[in-house]
């Protein structure tokens, strides 16, 4: 067996991929006259994409919302596996894995992650709103399209859609039997496999689609304390869909998704604050962190066509079980251990009535209900101690309901007015089972929205929008670092946008300018001490954000496409001070000021029905602060991904992929450390290269 030096191989791969983009430009410029003849999948125009951003099917360029839409072909070409990969292709959005699966650090238009609270955006999978952040970190399997809606989407998606929404649609069952198999092998001895099968059970009446995925990964980040790498991963996922169309007016869509994982977690490293960006020091613990989790989603979507309206019912049940065991002092000394259990159960129901598309007044109205229970238990103790350690044992309950409606009216053939409103009410309780304390409060908020859009030409549209968003307040675990209760976060956003198409639909330029005023913006922080890690959410009284976004797609010649995007947030906290300091005028922690990306895609025929496709992408993240004082800072970072694939039409695809080719390191999770002038920090995944083989088949 030949040993592979993956580090050397990765560097060679990077330097091979970098010139390919330039070679593609030169080659295409020299061969414009015959490019269409030599290119498979010839595209001399940008594909028209239909989105469901406003809970009805509309053309992307006609929707007065800032939306990044990615089709199945684009997702495959970019090697997208997770929502984190989607964020790399979206302006003003950064998602980084944090200290355990199911928790991410998010920067989205000035909004941040709050562990234990609502995400700053809503994730919708096949019409079902996921109830929490723990469902975000999953492998994307059998995906048809992903839409990232930027800006408050509370009118249609409710509390938690304050920064936007991510709408994920999986592939539909087919009327003919078909399937595919995909295997991959990557650095770190990672092995992956996916199998999908689809077809009819009763011709023209009942269809099914089923997928299975699994991965086994030894890891790439070593533990200085010995044992396995800290970022190992063993996960499996299964999903299935049964679609029934008993009549022309009635459709029933039943779905199930199950995921189980056993992963490395909590590989935090104590680092001196003045050497915060030095990654020469890695994790070194006597106890390897292990997180075991299981996620389940079951849903039933029923559509009934009343003339001329459509009645839709979406019922869902979600279960998340997570259990963590890890080192308590993040050193090789056998001093402390810690555990963290977080289990949740959620029932939800949405009923809505939608008007047809083909009329001057188009509307949707509905009712949303959710019942959520979370058990959150931690323990921190000395190794070998006989007594109980410190920690908390809380049960959180949430019972919420909302009424919503949105209408679009075409004032003229070119001018349209959109008005929407939603009222959310959420009764929350927190039961501290350790001391018997019980807290309860009802959080509520109205979320109006108004948009005026104008079609200057069939290819140029502009809009102005005002929207209010919010994410609900709640209760912290009882601790000494923050108050038990935190308040609603409320935002007022003013936005103007432009969507354009030029050069016979070979160039698209979409942009947006926005201003957001926050009241009680939620900020999450953690403190580690000799009694364990304490976490809390607190409110920043006032914050403002001014931002800009631009997306571009340009087909230079058939087969050669450029994708570009840039986003910028200028955030400032106002009137915020506590016993420690005055933070007024500082930037909001965990929010990236600048994000941008550029990708070059080139596809051409190399032999009969075999084509070669390459993609090279650069992601740039500007500097970011991690603390309220703006003293803990990560400088700007650049990340390069690449993919080279050979494809035999409808037979197989063999791809060589590389992620983070320059081996750039950046913080993921960051926490305060009570032992001196240090912080706790984990890091992103290092460079990884590998190969994938995909084989579609028919039965």
Features of the shown structure:
single chain, about 700 residues, mainly beta, Maltoporin, Chain A, 22-stranded antiparallel beta barrel, 5-stranded mixed beta sheet, 5 helices, 40 strands, about 5% helix
Description of the structure:
By secondary structure, this protein is mainly β. The chain has a single domain (6-698), classed as TonB-dependent receptor, beta-barrel domain (Maltoporin, Chain A, Beta Barrel), CATH 2.40.170. It contains five helices and 40 strands. It has a 22-stranded antiparallel β-barrel. The chain has a five-stranded mixed beta sheet with strand order 3-9-10-7-8. It has a three-stranded antiparallel beta sheet with strand order 4-5-6. The longest helix has 25 residues, at 6-30. It is globular, with a radius of gyration of 25 Å. The two termini are 37 Å apart.
Task: Describe the structure in brief.
The protein is mainly β. Helices cover 7% and strands 59% of the residues. β34 and β35 (633-634) form a beta hairpin.
CATH topology: Maltoporin, Chain A
Helix/strand-derived class?
Answer: mainly beta
Radius of gyration: 25 Å
The termini sit apart by 37 Å
Number of domains: 1
Number of helices: 5
Q: Which class in CATH terms?
A: Mainly Beta
Stretches where pLDDT is under 50 for at least 5 consecutive residues are: 1-41
Main β-sheet description: 22 strands, antiparallel, barrel
Layout of secondary structure:
Elements: H1 6-30, H2 32-38, E1 50-51, E2 58-59, E3 66-71, H3 72-78, H4 83-87, E4 93-97, E5 104-108, E6 111-112, E7 121-125, E8 128-129, E9 143-150, H5 154-157, E10 164-170, E11 178-186, E12 190-202, E13 206-217, E14 233-244, E15 250-264, E16 269-272, E17 290-305, E18 310-327, E19 336-354, E20 361-382, E21 390-410, E22 415-432, E23 438-446, E24 449-457, E25 460-471, E26 474-475, E27 485-486, E28 489-502, E29 507-529, E30 532-557, E31 560-574, E32 594-607, E33 610-621, E34 624-625, E35 633-634, E36 637-648, E37 652-659, E38 667-673, E39 678-683, E40 688-698
Parallel strand pairs: 7-10, 29-38
Antiparallel strand pairs: 1-2, 3-9, 4-5, 5-6, 7-8, 9-10, 11-12, 11-40, 12-13, 13-14, 14-15, 15-17, 16-39, 17-18, 18-19, 19-20, 20-21, 21-22, 22-23, 22-24, 24-25, 25-28, 26-27, 28-29, 29-30, 30-31, 31-32, 32-33, 33-36, 34-35, 36-37, 37-40, 38-39
């Amino acid at each position: 067996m030949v040993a592979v030096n993956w580090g050397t191989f990765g560097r060679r791969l990077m330097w091979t991929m970098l010139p390919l983009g330039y070679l593609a430009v030169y080659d295409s410029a020299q061969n414009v006259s015959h490019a269409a003849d030599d290119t498979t999948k010839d595209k001399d125009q940008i594909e028209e994409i239909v989105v469901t951003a406003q809970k009805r099917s509309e053309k992307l360029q006609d929707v007065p919302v800032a939306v990044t839409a990615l089709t199945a072909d684009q997702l495959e070409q970019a090697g997208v596996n997770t929502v984190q990969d989607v964020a790399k292709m979206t302006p003003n959005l950064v998602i980084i894995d944090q200290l355990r699966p199911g928790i991410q650090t998010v920067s989205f238009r000035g909004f941040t992650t709050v562990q234990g609270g609502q995400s700053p955006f809503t994730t919708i999978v096949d019409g079902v709103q996921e109830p929490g952040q723990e469902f975000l970190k999953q492998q994307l399997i059998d995906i048809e399209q992903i839409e990232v809606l930027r800006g408050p989407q509370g009118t249609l998606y409710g509390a938690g859609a304050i920064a936007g929404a991510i709408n994920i649609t999986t592939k539909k069952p087919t009327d003919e039997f078909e399937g595919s198999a995909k295997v991959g092998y990557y650095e770190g001895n990672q092995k992956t496999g996916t199998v999908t099968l689809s077809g009819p059970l009763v011709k023209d009446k009942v269809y099914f689609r089923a997928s299975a995925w699994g991965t086994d990964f030894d890891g790439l980040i070593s533990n200085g304390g010995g044992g396995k790498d800290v970022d190992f991963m063993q996960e499996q996922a299964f999903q299935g869909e049964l679609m029934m169309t008993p009549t022309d007016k009635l459709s029933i869509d039943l779905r199930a998704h199950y995921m189980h994982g056993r992963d490395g977690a909590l590989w935090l490293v104590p680092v001196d604050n003045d050497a915060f960006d030095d990654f020469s020091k890695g994790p070194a613990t006597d106890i390897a962190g292990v997180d075991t989790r299981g996620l389940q989603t079951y849903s039933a979507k029923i559509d009934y066509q009343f003339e001329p309206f459509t009645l839709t019912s979406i019922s869902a049940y979600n279960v998340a079980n997570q259990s963590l065991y890890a080192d308590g002092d993040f050193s090789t000394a056998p001093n402390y251990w810690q555990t963290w259990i977080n289990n949740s159960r959620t029932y939800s129901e949405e009923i809505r009535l939608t008007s047809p598309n083909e009329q001057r007044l188009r509307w949707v109205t509905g009712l949303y209900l959710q019942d959520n229970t979370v058990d959150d238990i931690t323990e921190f103790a000395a190794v070998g101690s006989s007594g109980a350690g410190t920690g908390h044992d809380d049960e959180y309950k949430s019972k919420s309901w909302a009424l919503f409606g949105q209408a679009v009216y075409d004032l003229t053939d070119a001018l349209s007015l959109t008005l929407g409103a939603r009222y959310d009410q959420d009764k929350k309780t927190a039961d501290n089972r350790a001391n018997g304390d019980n807290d309860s409060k009802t959080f509520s908020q109205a979320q109006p929205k108004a948009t005026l859009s104008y079609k200057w030409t069939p290819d140029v549209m502009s809009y102005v929008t005002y929207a209010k968003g919010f994410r609900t307040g709640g209760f912290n675990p009882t601790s000494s670092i923050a108050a038990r209760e935190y308040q609603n976060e409320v935002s007022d956003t003013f936005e103007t946008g432009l969507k354009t198409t030029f050069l016979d639909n070979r160039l698209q330029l979409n942009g947006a300018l926005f201003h957001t005023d926050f009241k009680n913006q939620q900020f999450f922080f953690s403190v580690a001490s000799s009694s364990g890690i304490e976490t809390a959410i607190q409110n920043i009284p006032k914050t403002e954000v001014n931002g800009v976004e631009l997306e571009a797609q340009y087909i230079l010649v058939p087969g050669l496409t450029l994708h570009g995007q840039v986003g910028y947030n200028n955030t400032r906290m106002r009137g915020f001070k506590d016993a420690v300091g005055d933070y007024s005028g500082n930037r909001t922690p965990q929010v990236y000021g600048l994000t941008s990306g550029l990708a070059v895609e080139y596809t051409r025929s190399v032999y009969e029905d075999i084509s070669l496709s390459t993609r090279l992408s650069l992601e740039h993240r500007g500097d970011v602060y991690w603390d309220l004082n703006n003293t803990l800072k990560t400088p700007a970072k650049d990340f390069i991904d690449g993919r080279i694939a050979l494809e035999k039409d409808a037979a197989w695809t063999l791809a060589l992929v590389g992620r983070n080719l320059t081996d750039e390191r950046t913080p993921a999770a960051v926490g305060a450390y009570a032992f001196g002038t240090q912080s706790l920090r984990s890091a992103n995944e290092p460079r990884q290269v590998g190969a994938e083989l995909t084989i579609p088949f028919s039965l």
